């Protein structure tokens, strides 16, 4: 059981480090004349992710499950998502953020996984929220937070795309790319 808590704690620490990086990147974007949009729903995203970890910890503590061989499948998918996360975040560099930060006139990043998808990082988050609980057979957490995340992403993506279309070359670059399914580079 200790190994489960350590694993989940490592993921939480990773997220906290990412928030620190995001805040640093947000300050840089603001110093360049950028601004934040979608502040109204950001607090719900933070709450959703915090509650996800609370729910996961409660479910793995309350429900006594033994290790099953098929848990390796979501574990592998989760680790592949981590590689995708590193690829997506490093591709965006200083433009990566947990908030919607817009730098007017900036050229949108269209390298790395962004050559194929509009929102690879969101696809990765969806994968993680589904797979992490499944590793530990925390089915309720997987179901509830996958649905809740889909709802909040439906709001967030609209706000983000509208802001980027208004202030950058987003429409021109991503017009033929799908949001979550890979499409060949034009």
TrEMBL record:
<dbReference type="Pfam" id="PF04140">
    <property type="entry name" value="ICMT"/>
</dbReference>
<dbReference type="GO" id="GO:0016020">
    <property type="term" value="C:membrane"/>
</dbReference>
<dbReference type="GO" id="GO:0004671">
    <property type="term" value="F:protein C-terminal S-isoprenylcysteine carboxyl O-methyltransferase activity"/>
</dbReference>
<feature type="transmembrane region" description="Helical">
    <location>
        <begin position="122"/>
        <end position="148"/>
    </location>
</feature>
<protein>
    <submittedName>
        <fullName>Alkylpyrone O-methyltransferase</fullName>
    </submittedName>
</protein>
<feature type="transmembrane region" description="Helical">
    <location>
        <begin position="41"/>
        <end position="60"/>
    </location>
</feature>
<keyword id="KW-0808">Transferase</keyword>
<feature type="transmembrane region" description="Helical">
    <location>
        <begin position="67"/>
        <end position="88"/>
    </location>
</feature>
<keyword id="KW-0472">Membrane</keyword>
<keyword id="KW-0489">Methyltransferase</keyword>
<keyword id="KW-1133">Transmembrane helix</keyword>
<dbReference type="InterPro" id="IPR007269">
    <property type="entry name" value="ICMT_MeTrfase"/>
</dbReference>
<dbReference type="GO" id="GO:0032259">
    <property type="term" value="P:methylation"/>
</dbReference>
<keyword id="KW-0812">Transmembrane</keyword>
<dbReference type="InterPro" id="IPR052527">
    <property type="entry name" value="Metal_cation-efflux_comp"/>
</dbReference>
